[in-house]
Amino acid sequence: TLPVGGAGLDAEAFSMLARWGSNLFVGGVQIALPVMIALLLVNLAFGVMSRSAPALSALSVGFPIALGAGLVLLSYSLPTLAAVLDHMLDQAFTLIGELFRSKASV
C-alpha cells in the first residue's frame, strides 16, 4: 500500500494525461463521425420525402430504414475501427510507461 500523502503525480504527468484525454476524444470522433454523417444524410432524405409525400409517416417508415442504414454503415466501418483502436491503445500504453518511469524517478 502507498503511504498517505505520498508523492503523487507532478504537473508534467497531469499534462500528459490531459493530452491523452484530448487524443481519446479525437479517436472517438474519428470512429463515430463517418456513420454520424451518413445517418444525417439519411435523415435529411427522410425530411425531403416527408415533405413531398406526407402520406408516408416519417416515424413508421423512417426509423426502421434509418436503423437498418446505421447497422449497414457500422458493419462497413468496422475494418477501419481496428486501426484507430490500435493507435489509441499504443498511445495509452506509451503514456502508462512514461507515467511509471516518471514515478520511479521520483
Work out the radius of gyration.
23 Å
User: Main β-sheet: number of strands, strand sense, barrel status?
Assistant: none
Structural class: mainly alpha
Oligomer: single chain
Strand tally: 0
The helix fraction, in percent, is: over 70%
**Quick check: average pLDDT?**
82
β-strand percent reads under 5%
- Which of globular, elongated, flat, extended, rod-shaped describes the shape? elongated
Gap between N and C termini: 17 Å
Q: What sequence of helices (H) and strands (E) makes up the elements? A: HH
Which regions are unreliable across 5 or more consecutive residues at pLDDT < 50? none
Individual helix count: 2
Overview of the structural elements:
There is one protein chain. The protein has 106 residues and is mainly α. Helix content is 85%, strand content 0%. It contains 2 helices and no strands. The chain has helices spanning 11-52, 58-105. Helix 1 (11-52) runs antiparallel to helix 2 (58-105). The relative contact order is 0.14. The mean pLDDT is 82.
Highlighted features:
single chain, 106 residues, mainly alpha
Summarize the structure.
The chain has about 110 residues and is mainly alpha-helical. It contains 2 helices and no strands.
Topology:
Elements lengths: L10 H42 L5 H48 L1
Helix pairs in contact: 1-2
